[in-house]
Amino acid sequence: DIEGDDVIKTLIQGLRNNSMITSLCLTYLNIHSEGSKALKQVLLENKTLRVMVLDNCIKSIEIAEVVAEGLQNSAGVTQLRLNNIKGDDIFATVIKRLSYN
Hints:
The structure is a single chain. The protein is of the alpha/beta class and 101 residues long. Helices cover 46% and strands 19% of the residues. β4, α3 and β5 form a beta-alpha-beta unit. α2 runs parallel beside α3 and α3 packs parallel to α4. The longest helix has 13 residues.
């Protein structure tokens, strides 16, 4: 696994004002506190991001809660793929919201 906070913080800088990117696939990143907060912020701000893939990235309930909050209130995400993560029950409300959109 790659330490994901630095990767995510770099990605976030590029995604903040980018209206071209519609999909973001993160796999095997070890997301910690700073990375989850940065990811939540971009989910809230970026209105063109539609597809989010998080595979093998969320390894604790605390991180799952932060990311789920960002997804629950995201500006544009309509499709989500989660594989091999902790806190899958936390994402249940996010999945319900996405399935109604």
